[in-house]
Give the backbone structure.
Amino acid sequence: MSHPLKPVRSLEARYYTDPAIYAREMDGLLSRTWQYAGHSSQVEKPGDYFTFQIAGQNLFCIHGRDGVIRAFYNVCQHRAHELVSGEGNCKVVVCPYHAWSYELSGELRSGPNIKVVPGLDKREICLTEVRVEDFHGFLFANLDPDAKPMDEWFPKVREELADFVPHIRQLEPLEWVEIPEACNWKVSVENYSECYHCSINHPTFSTGVVKPETYDIQPQGHCLRHTTECQNLDRMSYPIDLASNPHAGEYSSWFLWPMFSFQVYPGNVLNTYHWRPQGPDQCTVWRGWYTVGGVDSDVIRRLAIQDRATTVEEDIRIVESVQRGLKSKGYRPGPLVLDPNCGVNSEHSVEKLQQWMREAVKR
Protein backbone atom coordinates (compact mmCIF):
# COMPACT_ATOMS: atom_id res chain seq x y z
CA MET A 1 0.00 0.00 0.00
CA SER A 2 1.52 3.31 -1.09
CA HIS A 3 1.56 6.26 1.25
CA PRO A 4 0.62 9.73 -0.01
CA LEU A 5 3.47 12.18 -0.46
CA LYS A 6 3.88 14.76 2.26
CA PRO A 7 4.40 18.42 1.35
CA VAL A 8 7.79 20.04 1.90
CA ARG A 9 7.43 22.46 4.78
CA SER A 10 9.23 25.71 5.42
CA LEU A 11 11.97 26.08 8.02
CA GLU A 12 11.05 26.16 11.68
CA ALA A 13 10.77 29.62 13.19
CA ARG A 14 13.87 29.11 15.36
CA TYR A 15 16.09 29.42 12.27
CA TYR A 16 15.08 33.07 12.13
CA THR A 17 14.73 33.95 15.82
CA ASP A 18 17.22 31.88 17.86
CA PRO A 19 20.35 33.87 18.85
CA ALA A 20 22.31 30.60 19.04
CA ILE A 21 21.63 29.84 15.36
CA TYR A 22 22.61 33.39 14.42
CA ALA A 23 25.87 32.98 16.36
CA ARG A 24 26.61 29.71 14.52
CA GLU A 25 26.03 31.46 11.19
CA MET A 26 28.45 34.24 12.13
CA ASP A 27 31.15 31.78 13.21
CA GLY A 28 30.56 29.37 10.33
CA LEU A 29 28.59 30.29 7.21
CA LEU A 30 29.50 33.97 7.05
CA SER A 31 33.15 33.23 7.81
CA ARG A 32 33.59 30.79 4.93
CA THR A 33 31.58 32.29 2.08
CA TRP A 34 32.29 35.08 -0.41
CA GLN A 35 31.07 38.40 0.95
CA TYR A 36 30.94 41.75 -0.84
CA ALA A 37 33.65 44.10 0.40
CA GLY A 38 33.49 47.11 -1.93
CA HIS A 39 34.13 48.34 -5.45
CA SER A 40 37.49 48.55 -7.19
CA SER A 41 36.83 52.22 -7.99
CA GLN A 42 37.39 52.87 -4.28
CA VAL A 43 40.99 51.67 -4.55
CA GLU A 44 42.13 52.90 -7.98
CA LYS A 45 45.58 54.16 -6.98
CA PRO A 46 48.41 52.67 -4.89
CA GLY A 47 47.73 53.44 -1.25
CA ASP A 48 43.96 53.79 -1.67
CA TYR A 49 42.11 51.84 1.01
CA PHE A 50 38.66 51.32 2.52
CA THR A 51 37.42 49.44 5.57
CA PHE A 52 34.64 46.87 5.71
CA GLN A 53 33.29 44.14 7.98
CA ILE A 54 32.52 40.44 7.57
CA ALA A 55 31.03 38.24 10.28
CA GLY A 56 31.89 40.79 12.96
CA GLN A 57 35.52 41.05 11.81
CA ASN A 58 37.00 44.43 10.88
CA LEU A 59 39.02 44.39 7.65
CA PHE A 60 40.38 46.71 4.99
CA CYS A 61 41.20 46.55 1.28
CA ILE A 62 44.26 48.38 -0.05
CA HIS A 63 45.87 48.88 -3.45
CA GLY A 64 49.53 47.87 -3.35
CA ARG A 65 52.44 49.47 -5.18
CA ASP A 66 52.62 46.32 -7.27
CA GLY A 67 49.06 46.91 -8.52
CA VAL A 68 47.60 44.08 -6.43
CA ILE A 69 44.49 44.75 -4.34
CA ARG A 70 44.76 42.94 -1.02
CA ALA A 71 42.57 42.58 2.05
CA PHE A 72 43.80 42.38 5.65
CA TYR A 73 42.36 42.11 9.13
CA ASN A 74 42.31 45.65 10.45
CA VAL A 75 44.53 45.04 13.44
CA CYS A 76 48.11 45.93 14.33
CA GLN A 77 50.34 42.94 15.10
CA HIS A 78 51.91 44.81 18.03
CA ARG A 79 49.16 45.52 20.59
CA ALA A 80 45.96 45.00 18.54
CA HIS A 81 44.98 48.61 17.83
CA GLU A 82 42.89 49.12 14.68
CA LEU A 83 45.05 50.44 11.88
CA VAL A 84 42.76 52.48 9.61
CA SER A 85 39.21 53.79 9.53
CA GLY A 86 36.85 54.81 6.76
CA GLU A 87 38.67 55.23 3.48
CA GLY A 88 41.64 57.22 2.24
CA ASN A 89 45.15 56.97 0.84
CA CYS A 90 48.47 56.30 2.54
CA LYS A 91 52.10 55.70 1.56
CA VAL A 92 52.49 53.18 4.37
CA VAL A 93 49.99 51.85 6.92
CA VAL A 94 50.81 53.42 10.30
CA CYS A 95 49.20 52.28 13.53
CA PRO A 96 47.86 55.29 15.49
CA TYR A 97 48.80 53.69 18.84
CA HIS A 98 52.59 53.26 18.73
CA ALA A 99 53.36 54.20 15.12
CA TRP A 100 54.33 50.73 13.98
CA SER A 101 54.22 50.93 10.18
CA TYR A 102 53.52 48.37 7.49
CA GLU A 103 54.16 48.22 3.76
CA LEU A 104 51.09 48.30 1.50
CA SER A 105 51.71 44.58 0.96
CA GLY A 106 51.42 43.92 4.72
CA GLU A 107 55.03 43.41 5.85
CA LEU A 108 56.27 45.25 8.93
CA ARG A 109 58.33 48.28 7.90
CA SER A 110 59.41 49.83 11.19
CA GLY A 111 58.48 50.72 14.74
CA PRO A 112 59.93 53.12 17.33
CA ASN A 113 62.90 51.54 19.12
CA ILE A 114 62.14 48.01 17.94
CA LYS A 115 65.86 47.43 17.29
CA VAL A 116 66.35 46.88 21.01
CA VAL A 117 63.98 43.87 21.00
CA PRO A 118 66.18 40.74 21.17
CA GLY A 119 65.54 38.22 18.41
CA LEU A 120 62.97 40.34 16.59
CA ASP A 121 62.90 39.53 12.88
CA LYS A 122 60.77 42.02 10.94
CA ARG A 123 60.32 39.44 8.17
CA GLU A 124 58.26 37.30 10.55
CA ILE A 125 55.73 40.05 11.29
CA CYS A 126 53.05 40.74 8.72
CA LEU A 127 49.41 41.77 8.67
CA THR A 128 47.03 38.82 8.46
CA GLU A 129 45.78 38.62 4.88
CA VAL A 130 42.29 37.62 3.74
CA ARG A 131 41.44 36.24 0.32
CA VAL A 132 39.89 38.76 -2.06
CA GLU A 133 38.61 38.34 -5.62
CA ASP A 134 37.84 40.97 -8.24
CA PHE A 135 34.54 40.04 -9.92
CA HIS A 136 34.06 42.55 -12.77
CA GLY A 137 35.27 45.34 -10.48
CA PHE A 138 33.24 44.15 -7.47
CA LEU A 139 35.54 43.03 -4.67
CA PHE A 140 34.58 39.99 -2.60
CA ALA A 141 36.44 38.66 0.44
CA ASN A 142 36.42 35.30 2.19
CA LEU A 143 37.78 34.59 5.67
CA ASP A 144 38.30 30.93 4.75
CA PRO A 145 41.78 30.50 3.22
CA ASP A 146 40.69 27.17 1.71
CA ALA A 147 37.45 28.35 0.08
CA LYS A 148 36.89 27.44 -3.55
CA PRO A 149 37.18 30.30 -6.07
CA MET A 150 34.07 32.30 -6.89
CA ASP A 151 33.82 30.79 -10.37
CA GLU A 152 33.37 27.36 -8.77
CA TRP A 153 30.78 28.65 -6.32
CA PHE A 154 28.89 30.56 -9.01
CA PRO A 155 29.45 28.84 -12.38
CA LYS A 156 28.82 30.84 -15.57
CA VAL A 157 27.87 34.01 -13.67
CA ARG A 158 30.98 35.98 -14.64
CA GLU A 159 30.42 35.24 -18.34
CA GLU A 160 26.66 35.87 -18.23
CA LEU A 161 27.08 39.24 -16.53
CA ALA A 162 29.58 40.33 -19.17
CA ASP A 163 27.09 39.25 -21.84
CA PHE A 164 24.23 41.24 -20.30
CA VAL A 165 26.38 44.27 -19.37
CA PRO A 166 29.37 44.43 -21.75
CA HIS A 167 30.53 47.70 -20.18
CA ILE A 168 30.44 46.33 -16.61
CA ARG A 169 34.18 47.00 -16.02
CA GLN A 170 33.57 50.68 -16.75
CA LEU A 171 30.78 50.99 -14.19
CA GLU A 172 31.18 52.79 -10.89
CA PRO A 173 28.68 53.38 -8.07
CA LEU A 174 26.38 56.33 -8.65
CA GLU A 175 24.14 55.93 -5.61
CA TRP A 176 23.80 53.75 -2.54
CA VAL A 177 20.45 53.34 -0.78
CA GLU A 178 20.62 52.05 2.81
CA ILE A 179 17.57 50.07 3.92
CA PRO A 180 17.27 49.00 7.59
CA GLU A 181 14.92 46.04 8.08
CA ALA A 182 13.65 44.70 11.40
CA CYS A 183 13.97 41.05 10.40
CA ASN A 184 16.43 38.19 10.22
CA TRP A 185 18.64 38.38 7.12
CA LYS A 186 17.25 35.05 5.85
CA VAL A 187 13.68 36.39 5.87
CA SER A 188 14.81 39.23 3.60
CA VAL A 189 16.83 36.92 1.32
CA GLU A 190 13.92 34.49 0.98
CA ASN A 191 11.55 37.29 0.08
CA TYR A 192 13.99 38.51 -2.56
CA SER A 193 14.37 34.99 -3.96
CA GLU A 194 10.77 34.35 -5.02
CA CYS A 195 8.27 36.27 -7.12
CA TYR A 196 5.21 34.35 -5.90
CA HIS A 197 4.32 37.53 -4.01
CA CYS A 198 5.14 40.05 -6.78
CA SER A 199 1.79 40.57 -8.52
CA ILE A 200 0.02 41.01 -5.18
CA ASN A 201 2.58 43.24 -3.47
CA HIS A 202 4.64 44.99 -6.18
CA PRO A 203 2.28 46.66 -8.67
CA THR A 204 4.90 49.03 -10.12
CA PHE A 205 7.52 46.30 -10.62
CA SER A 206 4.92 43.87 -12.00
CA THR A 207 3.28 46.25 -14.44
CA GLY A 208 6.05 48.76 -15.25
CA VAL A 209 9.26 46.70 -15.30
CA VAL A 210 8.72 42.94 -15.83
CA LYS A 211 6.11 40.45 -17.03
CA PRO A 212 5.53 38.26 -13.94
CA GLU A 213 4.00 35.44 -16.02
CA THR A 214 7.44 34.89 -17.61
CA TYR A 215 9.36 34.94 -14.29
CA ASP A 216 11.42 31.94 -13.25
CA ILE A 217 14.30 31.21 -10.86
CA GLN A 218 16.74 28.32 -11.20
CA PRO A 219 19.77 27.17 -9.16
CA GLN A 220 23.19 27.60 -10.78
CA GLY A 221 25.78 26.28 -8.36
CA HIS A 222 25.34 28.42 -5.24
CA CYS A 223 23.61 31.06 -7.36
CA LEU A 224 19.90 31.54 -7.93
CA ARG A 225 19.36 32.85 -11.45
CA HIS A 226 16.23 34.99 -11.96
CA THR A 227 14.97 35.50 -15.53
CA THR A 228 11.97 37.26 -17.05
CA GLU A 229 10.94 39.48 -19.94
CA CYS A 230 10.48 43.22 -19.72
CA GLN A 231 7.03 44.75 -19.69
CA ASN A 232 5.53 46.03 -22.95
CA LEU A 233 7.37 49.20 -23.93
CA ASP A 234 4.27 51.37 -23.67
CA ARG A 235 3.92 50.26 -20.04
CA MET A 236 7.56 50.53 -18.96
CA SER A 237 8.09 53.01 -16.12
CA TYR A 238 11.38 54.24 -17.68
CA PRO A 239 12.73 54.39 -21.25
CA ILE A 240 14.80 51.55 -22.72
CA ASP A 241 16.45 50.99 -26.09
CA LEU A 242 15.83 47.41 -27.22
CA ALA A 243 18.51 47.75 -29.90
CA SER A 244 21.27 48.59 -27.40
CA ASN A 245 22.04 44.95 -26.53
CA PRO A 246 20.61 41.48 -27.37
CA HIS A 247 19.44 41.25 -23.73
CA ALA A 248 18.04 44.78 -23.46
CA GLY A 249 14.47 43.46 -23.29
CA GLU A 250 15.22 41.07 -20.43
CA TYR A 251 15.47 41.22 -16.66
CA SER A 252 17.99 38.92 -15.03
CA SER A 253 19.31 38.56 -11.50
CA TRP A 254 22.13 36.47 -10.06
CA PHE A 255 21.73 35.95 -6.31
CA LEU A 256 25.08 34.81 -4.91
CA TRP A 257 24.56 32.81 -1.74
CA PRO A 258 24.41 33.97 0.94
CA MET A 259 24.14 37.80 0.76
CA PHE A 260 24.68 39.48 -2.60
CA SER A 261 22.80 39.89 -5.85
CA PHE A 262 23.58 41.39 -9.24
CA GLN A 263 20.45 42.62 -11.01
CA VAL A 264 20.20 43.74 -14.61
CA TYR A 265 17.01 45.66 -15.26
CA PRO A 266 15.66 45.93 -18.82
CA GLY A 267 17.86 48.27 -20.81
CA ASN A 268 21.02 46.70 -19.31
CA VAL A 269 20.78 48.75 -16.09
CA LEU A 270 23.01 47.16 -13.45
CA ASN A 271 22.04 47.42 -9.81
CA THR A 272 22.92 45.35 -6.77
CA TYR A 273 21.70 44.20 -3.38
CA HIS A 274 23.89 43.23 -0.50
CA TRP A 275 22.72 42.22 2.93
CA ARG A 276 24.45 42.92 6.24
CA PRO A 277 23.09 41.13 9.35
CA GLN A 278 23.09 43.06 12.63
CA GLY A 279 21.52 40.47 14.90
CA PRO A 280 18.93 37.69 14.88
CA ASP A 281 16.14 40.13 13.97
CA GLN A 282 17.93 43.07 12.34
CA CYS A 283 19.66 43.53 8.99
CA THR A 284 20.53 46.27 6.53
CA VAL A 285 20.13 45.98 2.79
CA TRP A 286 22.26 48.17 0.53
CA ARG A 287 20.95 48.93 -2.96
CA GLY A 288 23.64 50.00 -5.40
CA TRP A 289 23.08 51.81 -8.71
CA TYR A 290 25.84 52.18 -11.30
CA THR A 291 26.76 54.17 -14.40
CA VAL A 292 29.83 54.33 -16.64
CA GLY A 293 32.45 56.21 -14.65
CA GLY A 294 29.85 57.02 -11.98
CA VAL A 295 28.59 59.86 -14.19
CA ASP A 296 25.24 61.26 -13.09
CA SER A 297 22.15 59.98 -14.91
CA ASP A 298 18.67 61.36 -14.54
CA VAL A 299 17.18 58.05 -15.70
CA ILE A 300 19.09 56.01 -13.10
CA ARG A 301 18.40 58.53 -10.33
CA ARG A 302 14.68 58.44 -11.05
CA LEU A 303 14.71 54.64 -11.25
CA ALA A 304 16.45 54.46 -7.86
CA ILE A 305 13.83 56.81 -6.37
CA GLN A 306 11.00 54.79 -7.90
CA ASP A 307 12.48 51.53 -6.61
CA ARG A 308 12.93 52.92 -3.07
CA ALA A 309 9.38 54.31 -2.94
CA THR A 310 7.70 51.18 -4.35
CA THR A 311 9.37 47.75 -4.33
CA VAL A 312 11.73 48.47 -1.43
CA GLU A 313 9.05 50.06 0.78
CA GLU A 314 6.63 47.25 -0.03
CA ASP A 315 9.24 44.62 0.87
CA ILE A 316 10.05 46.29 4.20
CA ARG A 317 6.43 45.88 5.29
CA ILE A 318 6.43 42.24 4.15
CA VAL A 319 9.64 41.08 5.82
CA GLU A 320 9.00 42.88 9.09
CA SER A 321 5.51 41.37 9.27
CA VAL A 322 6.99 37.91 8.63
CA GLN A 323 9.56 38.40 11.41
CA ARG A 324 6.78 39.33 13.86
CA GLY A 325 4.80 36.29 12.71
CA LEU A 326 7.74 33.96 13.26
CA LYS A 327 7.61 34.89 16.95
CA SER A 328 3.93 33.97 17.17
CA LYS A 329 3.07 30.92 19.28
CA GLY A 330 0.41 30.17 16.68
CA TYR A 331 2.79 29.69 13.75
CA ARG A 332 3.37 26.23 12.31
CA PRO A 333 5.70 25.97 9.27
CA GLY A 334 3.48 25.80 6.20
CA PRO A 335 3.95 23.81 2.99
CA LEU A 336 6.01 25.27 0.17
CA VAL A 337 4.28 25.55 -3.20
CA LEU A 338 6.54 23.47 -5.45
CA ASP A 339 5.31 23.45 -9.04
CA PRO A 340 7.11 20.82 -11.20
CA ASN A 341 7.00 23.36 -14.02
CA CYS A 342 8.57 26.01 -11.76
CA GLY A 343 7.55 29.52 -12.86
CA VAL A 344 6.40 32.57 -10.93
CA ASN A 345 3.86 30.80 -8.70
CA SER A 346 6.34 28.29 -7.34
CA GLU A 347 8.65 28.35 -4.32
CA HIS A 348 11.26 25.90 -5.62
CA SER A 349 13.94 28.60 -5.16
CA VAL A 350 12.97 28.96 -1.49
CA GLU A 351 13.28 25.20 -1.08
CA LYS A 352 16.87 25.39 -2.41
CA LEU A 353 17.68 28.36 -0.16
CA GLN A 354 16.34 26.58 2.90
CA GLN A 355 18.42 23.52 2.02
CA TRP A 356 21.53 25.74 2.09
CA MET A 357 20.35 27.31 5.36
CA ARG A 358 19.96 23.92 7.04
CA GLU A 359 23.36 22.75 5.79
CA ALA A 360 25.01 25.91 7.10
CA VAL A 361 23.78 25.33 10.65
CA LYS A 362 24.58 21.60 10.65
CA ARG A 363 28.30 22.12 9.96
Summary: The chain has two domains: 35-142, 154-362. The two ends are 37 Å apart (CA to CA).
